[in-house]
């Protein structure tokens, strides 16, 4: 296969390249989305804990 090739080969190479880039984009987006969901879950647990502690302290002071 020559570097330039013919038009049909160039289309195949371009198609394979586009599909692989798109697949990498999907994988990257999935990893980032999963990481954000984990951070949000951790933050929610933190907020629940803080709210519980504040509620306990407010009842002690009454």
Count of β-strands = 0
Helix content: over 70%
User: What fraction of the residues are assigned to beta strands by DSSP?
Assistant: under 5%
How many angstroms separate the termini?
A: 84 Å
The rough form would be described as rod-shaped
Q: What structural class do helix, strand and pairing data support?
A: mainly alpha
| H/E topology pattern | H
* Count of alpha and pi helical runs: 1
Low-confidence stretches: none
Biggest sheet, in brief? none
* Mean pLDDT level: 83
Taking all Cα atoms into account, the compactness measure Rg is: 26 Å
Question: Can you give a write-up of this model?
Answer:
Keywords: Membrane, Transmembrane, Transmembrane helix. The chain crosses the membrane at residues 12-32. The radius of gyration is 26 Å and the shape is rod-shaped. The protein starts with 6 loop residues before the first helix and ends with a helix. The model has no long low-confidence stretch (mean pLDDT 83). It is 87% helix and 0% strand. By secondary structure, the protein is mainly α. The chain has one helix at residues 7-60.
């Amino acid at each position: 296969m020559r570097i330039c090739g013919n038009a049909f080969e160039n289309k195949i190479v371009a198609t394979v390249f586009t599909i692989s880039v798109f697949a990498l984009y999907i994988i990257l987006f999935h990893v980032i989305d999963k990481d954000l969901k984990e951070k949000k879950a951790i933050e929610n647990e933190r907020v629940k804990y803080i709210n519980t502690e504040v509620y306990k302290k407010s009842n002690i002071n009454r």
